[in-house]
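Subject: two folds for Thursday's group meeting

Dear M.,

Sorry for the delay on this. The cluster queue was jammed most of the week, so I only got both jobs back this morning. I'm pasting them in the order they finished. Each block is the input sequence followed by the predicted structure tokens. Could you check whether the formatting survives your parser before we put anything on slides? The first protein is the one we discussed after the seminar.
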Amino acid sequence: MKKSIDKIVYILKPSVDTYPPCVSQIRIIRDLGYSVEVWFGRCGAATLHLLETNGIAMKQLRFAPDSTKSKIGKLKNWLEFRHAVKKAMRSERDNVLFWFGTAESAIPLFPLSRNKRMVMSVLELMDDRRVSRSLSAHIARKCVAVTACEENRANIMRFWWKLKDKPYVVPNKPYEIRIDANAEPTCDEVADALRLIDGRPFVIYQGIFQNIEYISNVARALNAREDMPLLVMMGSDRRNIVPQIKNIYADTIFIPHIQSPSHLEITSHAILGVVCYDHSSLNKLYCAPNKIFEYSKFGIPMLANDVPGLVQTVGAYEAGVCVDFDSQNEVAKGIDALLSGHEVYAANARKLYESVDNKATIKRLLEGAAQ
């Protein structure tokens, strides 16, 4: 007997605009014809406008801001979020599906009752956070469905958490990017950045800069040759990595974080994209970065390192080259290969992008949740 789904409540504890995969899932659910309401704490103006203009109801929950500096602040944040969600849940009907956009959004509500129909999206393996992993496993076993963003992660989660079924694999591919290659700027931040680049060819490295070793040999390889492209680093640099890279390669430009999806107007002009993860955890070995789809959307060949999560995507589709980032020589060879074979790699990058159909996967998930 089918159990109808009258409404899907999508719950997200962190700021909505900092989780593009969640924004994509919300928009897909709406486009599949479901009534969806997002319960959230914070959301940037651009993302809020995008969702509301897509006919998505937004309900802001009131709870203390997260504090990473204080255990008491973090506990207060958790308890107030828990209270706000449980209070809102009590007013909902039986035929509501609650979808937690991240494990971190579900954990504060532990233990959850089985009489609620729930889905949980898990964006990290948490192999270095035993308590969070244990709580997530408990919640996952009560859910009608769980999603992972990478195939190996899905199988690992099934084994670790003793799940009956493998989680649905929903890669971190942005949904319906309405931005073309070499896009015109639609905001002042992008216009200023493109003026700084001034039409010169560039290699882009975007995201949160966590480790200088991820990009240092790229800078050295570019510096060792003449007539090389600019290196554009776009994102968040809390660890002061950009000045160190500029000391290696003077033709480096830093563009501070620009809210998604506007940042892709800059990405769309790049000739190569860089993506790198280290070997320090399973989560990084089986990485699932947004940026491989942000690059491949525009047919940007990728210089990637040799962790399995990139070898099995970028490498398998020959959408770029996967090399040892500890070797300047290997990185230099990779850059040369991408520049000389740019047209072929660009075409393969577009094939990688088109290979993923998250809408079809979420449709199957929701059909199964109604059984």
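Second protein, same layout:
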Amino acid sequence: MPTSAFASLLIAFVAAAGAVPLLRDMLRDRPTVRSAGAVAMALGVVVAAFYSDPWPASDRGLIFGAAALVLAGLALDARLAGSGGATVRRIFEVAGTLVAGVFLFAYLEHDRVTWSVGFMMLAAVSLLLPIATAALDRLPSATPSLPAGMVLVQLLLLMFFGAANADGGSRYSLYAEFAIVALPVIGALLGCLVYLSSMPWRARPGVALGTGGLLALGFMISWGALRLGSITAEVRGGTTALLWLVAVPVFEFVRESVGRLAGRMAAQRWLQQPGSAGLRHLVQAVCNAHYSPAALLSIQAVLGLAGIGLCKLDTSGYFLTLALMALGVAYMLVPVYLTWRRPAASLGRAAYSQHGGDRA
């Protein structure tokens, strides 16, 4: 398995890196160019699957599901660029998440799953991951490479987590099946990141992933977390520790939703009264608070490594859950506090514009 899996990683990298400029040139001057990165990533994975060992039959539906999301996003990107794009985006995100959820639970129903409280929590969080990953593209400081970089970090953490807990037998078999799928995705992501990021020879990113690509990436993380959750049922706190590896996009989705609500509040007439200056300053701080892309990636890496370490120390799942909830509250409050300490005048500019509408 290791030789063929790592070979597929390299093949996916080369295929995706070569497909991106070709697709970009084909789709130049069209709205669908946003999805060139997602389509190239999917092509890289397909090419790797063709040359490497056959993937597990139970995971073929996953690949078809992710590909369907990518193609649907390619078709809808033109609508997202026009009027009503924000509404189309939200409908597509909700529909894509529901489709992913139906497939995931149908898949789990017929697979080797040991249900527990921790696993049910992980399943509930996994339902939010596709739409939470897509929401990373809407952040005030977002770059086209942010969601892809976040998913890359999460996949590497899941690989590390699975290797640390797959000690032979059926556990290793489940981990090997996960690795056969995850490594080509990692390779394709690396190949696309060259074009999703600004480089010394290119001031701006060459392509973006599009909504379908973002939903598909979140779908992959959902599947990977649930697949590895089924191999940690006998590990004390193991399933709950997986929440630490996938928490940041969900945290950011909740924080961004609260910021959107604050943006709508900031536009209310009653909040413009002279006696509401203090409350207005707080609402604007909530609206404008955000993390930089580097901070988001760093927080995800630190949380994931901490979760893996606590799992290896046989930490109780209840403690892991309570600690993660406390960290989630701190995650929400720290940027608000730092922004709130800034002078009120610096927060007064167009608070609503950042969270009141979507960037199509």
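Two things I noticed about the second structure. DSSP finds 14 helices and no strands in the chain. The mean pLDDT is 77.

Cheers,
T.
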